[in-house]
Amino acid sequence: MHSLLRKGRSYTNRAISSAGSEHLPYKQGVTGSNPVSPTKLPTKGKLFLYMGYFVYIIYSAQLDRYYVGHTHDLEERTRKHNSNHKGFTGKVNDWILKYSEKYDSKESAYFREREIKKWKNRKKIEELIVKGSEHPD
Questions:
Q1: What three-state secondary structure class fits 68?
Q2: Angle CA(57)–CA(99)–CA(43) in degrees, nearest 5?
Q3: What's the mean pLDDT when you consider all of the chain?
Q4: How far apart, in Å, are the Cα atoms of 50 and each of 41, 73, 105?
Q5: What pLDDT, on the 0 to 100 scale, is given for residue 95?
Q6: Up-side HSE of residue 132: CA atoms within 13 Å toward CB?
Q7: Buried b / exposed e across 42-61, counting CB within 10 Å, b at 16+?
Q8: Alpha-carbon gap, residue 27 to 93, rounded angstroms
Q9: Residues 6+ apart with CB under 8 A from 69
Q10: Alpha-carbon span 69 to 55, nearest angstrom
């Protein structure tokens, strides 16, 4: 075991590894734990395929309200809206998907979500749902 002194602090009982030190300036030692494991995809036994991003509109008959959002997994997001959670959609569990649009990037989907939310007009949202148009006039 080595003891290090950095900025007035003493670090003891830590092993120093030189693994990967060929990439560090002056071959300095590296302390710490193992590298972070890679992010796990939420597959839950399903084959994960990139499907893009979606803007969606869900509707609750109990509240007689629409909700606009964006996601990369429509099925899972709808399930979460219908779960008992804090927040606007957690009040009831009868949300159904009424409309969606597909986008290649999260930024594009988010931009479209904001555009629809700015309408603040139920009639215009219902026209979009009826038309099924990706970009209404």
A1: strand
A2: 80
A3: 75
A4: 11, 10, 11
A5: 96
A6: 0
A7: eeeeeeeeeeebbbbbbbbe
A8: 58
A9: 55, 56, 58, 77, 113
A10: 6
Alpha helices of the chain — where are they, by DSSP H? 74-81, 106-119, 122-131
Q: Residues 2-22: pLDDT tens digits?
A: 444 445 554 454 444 444 444
Lowest mean pLDDT across 15-24, 48-57, 76-85, 113-122: 15-24
Report yes or no: 67 and 98 within 8 Å, Cβ to Cβ: no
Q: Is-contact 1 13, C-beta < 8 A?
A: yes
Question: CA-based angle 32:36:38, to the nearest 5?
Answer: 165
| Assigned token pair, 24 | 């560090």
Beta partners for residue 9, in sequence order = 6
